[in-house]
Amino acid sequence: MVIICKQVASVAEWKHFGVLGIWIAIPPLPEGGGGPRTMAAAHDLEIEEDVNLNMETEMKEELEEEKMREGRADKDPFKPRKVHRIVSKWMLPESVRRTYLERANCLPPPLFIIFISIAELAVFIYYAVWKPQKQWITLDTGILESPFIYRPEKREEAWRFISYMLVHAGVQHILGNLIMQLGLGIPLEMVHKGLRVGLVYLAGVIAGSLASSIFDPLKSLVGASGGVYALMGGYFMNVLVNFQEMIPAFGVVRLLIIVVIIVSDMGFALYRRFFVPENGSPVSFAAHIAGGFAGMSIGYTVFSCFDQALLKDPRFWTAIAAYLAFVLFAVFFNIFLSPAN
């Protein structure tokens, strides 16, 4: 409570101005009406009263608007505030969290990652149940003959450079990819929406198959690891660059989680590539690395432009130019230089 007291010669009248908690002493006019100085003082007090009343009214209106906003958010099923607060702490630097929370909603829901995950699971179940393998938890003849898998001798079927993400080498392979892309992809899509997340994911998938055709040109390729690693690469760079703003303790935990996942998954990929049984078929691991690089370039620029126009960011166009240069080189290599020819 603030008390403003003016020294007066006689008993003053005290007035209280509502929620502002202000008491003002108003001196009484002397008998006979007072002189010019008294009239000026009374005029000043009237102005001060008007200002305080206006401030009181504005504060009441702001409080009412804030209560109405909170009430609408609590009633709106598409704005679960607690979930959005957690997502903002894990996905965004502090400087843009308030902006996200003000406009956050689940419309549209994270359909891209969910749809891709369902498609990958459906294809896996098809080859495991309706087209059973001798050992369906590993690569076998049925999967290797799939029209989705990338095979170097069938590179002219261009869809295989993308569709290979639907086929997986076994249970541990698809479970690992699904857990990673759902656990990271859904929060990313809640923040950045499906178009941006889809761009990063597919950039990693295409980069993975093209890199495999260059650096491991005689090996087949299956799995969505290129897209998953693109999401992880973009998120990893975002945490690294905005480490101080993304709560250092949480930042360390997040980096450690990403490192553990990458090391374990890369270990499994290297095993499938170099220590596969004699009756099995080795699978390329280059997609993991290429997807990670796609994420650290395109993914980082996309995920760091939450509250900015992506097409106006020069970093985005620099990353796109580098990516297109790689794609053109890969196409040239596959047509004229590949050992698979």
CATH fold-level label of one domain = Rhomboid-like fold
Strand order of the largest sheet: 1-3-2
Radius of gyration: 32 Å
| Residue runs with pLDDT of under 50 for 5 or more positions | 1-11, 71-78
CATH architecture of one domain: Up-down Bundle
CATH superfamily of one domain: Rhomboid-like
Main location: membrane
Family: Belongs to the peptidase S54 family.
Catalytic activity: Cleaves type-1 transmembrane domains using a catalytic dyad composed of serine and histidine that are contributed by different transmembrane domains
Membrane topology: Multi-pass membrane protein
Overview of this protein structure:
This protein has 341 residues and is mostly helical. It has a domain at 111-337: Rhomboid-like fold, CATH 1.20.1540. 65% of the residues lie in helices and 4% in strands. The protein has helices spanning 36-75, 81-91, 94-103, 111-130, 141-144, 160-163, 171-215, 225-241, 248-274, 286-303, 314-337; strands at 2-4, 13-16, 22-26. It is elongated and about 90 Å long.
Key features?
Rhomboid-like fold, elongated, transmembrane, EC 3.4.21.105, mainly alpha, 341 residues, single chain, membrane, hydrolase
Summarize the structure.
It catalyses: Cleaves type-1 transmembrane domains using a catalytic dyad composed of serine and histidine that are contributed by different transmembrane domains. The chain has helices spanning 36-75, 81-91, 94-103, 111-130, 141-144, 160-163, 171-215, 225-241, 248-274, 286-303, 314-337; strands at 2-4, 13-16, 22-26. The protein is mostly helical.
